[in-house]
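Researcher: Last one for today. Full complex below.
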Amino acid sequence: MPGSVSAMAANWPKDVGILAMELYFPSQYIEQAELEHFDGVPAGKYTIGLGQVRMGFCTDREDINSLCLTVVQRLMERSGVAYASVGRLEVGTETIIDKSKSVKTVIMQLFEESGNGDVEGVDTTNACYGGTAALFNAVNWVESSSWDGRYALVVAADIAVYAAGNARPTGGAGAVAMLVGPDAPLIFERGLRATHMQHAYDFYKPDMASEYPVVDGKLSIKCYLSALDRCYALYRDKIHAQWQRDGVDKRFSLDDFGYVVFHSPYCKLVQKSLARLLLNDFLTNPDACGGDGGNTELFAGLGAFRDVRPEDTYFDRDVEKAFMAASIQLFEQKTKPSLLVSSQNGNMYTPSVYGCLASVLAQHMPQELAGQRIGIFSYGSGFAATLYSVRVTQDSTPGSRLDKMVSSLYNLRARLDSRRKVSPAIFTENLKLREERHHEASYTPRGSVEDLFPGTWYLTRVDDKHRREYARRAVNDNLSPEAAPGNANLATESLPSPVKKIPRIPATANKPDNGVSDH
Ligand code: ACO
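Model: Here's the assembly. Have a good evening.
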């Protein structure tokens, strides 16, 4: 075994984690209730059965590159961080439009003016897990001997579309960008990552000419829940080992998470997942329902399930019903707030779980969040899954990093509400157009530019060699308070630089175009 953890820890930067977050979702959506009617399925199947309210989608004006350009520029403008101060840029996506050229290299266009080409990292792919893998790469870099003192930037983005049929209502689209560095308000808890990876054909994209996956829906649910069980067991083992080392005599349970966020293919699965964690707590301590201590009240009436085997229960209605009922309050407190973006915009694939994290931050006061442990479960089909946790910093004072992060997300609901509703017929036409013209050379998109949010990058042309060109919709064109970079309510102050070494950047380093101060 190379050096001890404590010896290494002496050299790690402090409190490495997420410093700032930015979300982007398309400017149009459909109502799931209207889609039920349009698809001819029983009313309630998508809205109650899957728990979805609305679904965002992209016209042919947007692709994976434009989504990433939009979210990165928005993060950089609003945080006031200079492009020269970024030493690593990672992209997690499963929306592949080129088998060789990374999306990361397309985003490098934003860095050109700064002269900073010294930026490590490329793209990472495994279904919805790529964003988490990218985030881990970024955190690992900051904690490694390769770190040069600059920020890492992580982008998770996808366009989630399914062929017509039962999976279509579980689509969505969007992007999340995260700035990673030391002294963060969301601190990665060291040694608390529990991973389970396994081979399965539950959801995959073997047809390079199509945006659509091949999906075995039921198998994907089974894989997701089995991965959750495995990761939770492993997470508990790891935290117990840490507690034992620190002399803490305690059994980990859901209570030890202030919030738990999950990759959200659809909201009902997330609620079932929270119930599943309670089932796991119960099965490791079944006597608690029978009166020898433990959480008697929570487990009251569950005694009949003390001998069930988790692997027999993925679709067991009685178990599901009993533990959903028992966990209803825990769900309301710890997980429901995370479902804002997911219920309104759908599954964004790689950004889904980070949209959930942002939803928690957006709907709480900094004081409510301070000191909380947030459990984060990331799942990507195929399959790869990790349960890990971040600890929210204790400092929630006005002007603190946490306060800035929370206030930068305060208008999430207003931004979702400012989208334009279209009919399922228009949505279907758009998907048909994407289907027919996907990957075409010498193509000029038809989708409206005026309907995009201000500041959105969009595709202008694909030339005869498949090279893509983009433009950006002006930021101050019909500027709404929600969309305005530099809005007084947003976190516009520069983040203090973590730079220890002077980056090799020319003095002409990038200036944000919104007047926000650089550092
Ligand atoms: N009112 C209320 N609820 C209803 C109604 C109604 N009228 N009709 C059906 N329901 C309920 C069903 O009982 C079911 O609930 P349950 O899951 O609690 O049993 C729910 O609505 C969905 O109905 P199903 O018949 O199970 O749906 P179907 O099999 O047609 O499709 C599925 C669901 C499999 C999730 C599909 O949308 C899909 O394949 N999605 C993509 C794969 C996916 O998201 N997998 C999850 C993990 S992997 C990933 O992230 C991609």
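Residues 478-519 have pLDDT under 50 and may be disordered. Residues 12-509 form a domain with the Peroxisomal Thiolase; Chain A, domain 1 fold (CATH 3.40.47.10).
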